[in-house]
Amino acid sequence: MSGCPMGGHPPTGPDSAPAELPASRLSRRNLLSLAGVGGAAAGLAAGFFGHDTVAAMAADTTPAPADDSVVPFHGDHQAGITTAAQDRLHMAAFDVTTTKREDLIALLKDWTEAAEALTKGLPAGATGAVDGPYGAPPEDTGEALDLNAGRLTLTFGFGASLFEKDGVARFGLDGRRPEALIDLPHFPGDDLDPARSGGDLVVQACADDPQVAVHAIRNLARIGFGRARVRWSQLGFGRTSSTSRAQQTPRNLFGFKDGTNNLKVEDAQLLDEHVWADSTRPQDAWLAGGSYLVARRIRMHIEIWDRTSLGEQEGLIGRTKGTGAPLSGGGEFTDPDFALTGRADKPLIPLDAHVRIAHPAQNGGVRMLRRGYNYTDGSDGLGHLDAGLFFIAFVNDPRTHYVPMQMAMAKTDTLAVEYLEHTGSGLFAVPGGVQPGGYLGSGLFS
After folding, report:
1. Residue 36 falls within a domain, yes or no?
2. N or C terminus of the chain with fewer C-beta within 10 Å?
3. 154 close to 115: Cβ distance less than 8 angstroms
4. Which residues make beta-bridge pairs with 292?
5. Per the domain annotation, does 37 fall within a domain?
6. Which domain holds residue 53?
7. What mean pLDDT is predicted for residues 398-406?
8. Which contiguous run of DSSP H or E holds residue 148?
9. How many structural domains does the chain have?
10. 31, exposed or middle or buried, with CB in 10 Å at 0-12, 13-18, 19+?
């Protein structure tokens, strides 16, 4: 297939008295709230912890240990591309409802500020979920209270419709749309739902805790109220690709290992060649350090697949179901030998096998960085699961690194023709990373 555990938390509740919590469990913000700036608040803190404890905490200047649940937000590239793929996804596309350029810029600045906080495991807004005035809605929705950052990453992209719609330029972005930000062609077999496709903006939230990912998208949507609204969203579980060699190859809903030959963070030269966008044109300078995100909602015909013999399944994929080795022999990471034949001189890897048609050797050497996820959205009302693969890939140019491969698969890959149906689609330009003090996509508006 093409494509890319929820940790437990100690129970808390109204019967949990603050005095029962060890000091190590208290956040710096809670400690300052108890200690105040002096006087009675300090006395209360001293009485609560004991004078020696408070003095020791005040005097301790040892740097806190690194929190492995936090993925840094700032950098040359946005997090969530080469970051080791997390277990859960919540992706949402937005339509911008304001017509004012300054409102769009303000939204991106507000999202940047919120993303910095959320990826650190902090609440959105200055007063968060519980510290604001009773007479106003909280600045954070609160469902991630007591959870850590969960390796949350937030990756933002801009759709073609942000630049122009119905032939009319928007937000003063005349001439700023990159040439590679195309309208994807209609591929054979596509059955796209417009309500699940497109969008002016996209946010990919990945985390190891589904509640953390959902919380992030929910709060960004809340912040965008009056300026942007959700067009579509998709939950995903069980990553279908690895982006680091430290990760084991996962399986998709057909039960096969997925993404064996995916690009990895360790492949710096290949990432430069296939993932990071070309920003040499003056109008594309804002894309330096960025990429293009292809999103496709691919429904799998699960019930038909489950009635297919093991031998036919392996022939359609071109790999063994158990180890993931190519049918030409070896182990999972052995290069397929497409010339090797068996009985009656037939190729061991069939001519219409997925692994053959999608292999770089059959596609001019181009490769993608995939970050897909499994999804299950209930049933379709006919007793069939609405389930499949939410395909996500990052490429340096979709015209060369996605469209030709997808067109070939849609025409000649029997797996794609008979067992898969593309029901949603999106293509987005992903700007480079944010530096401290900057905001998402700032180069586009300079």
Report:
1. yes
2. C
3. yes
4. 395, 429
5. yes
6. 32-62
7. 97
8. none
9. 1
10. middle
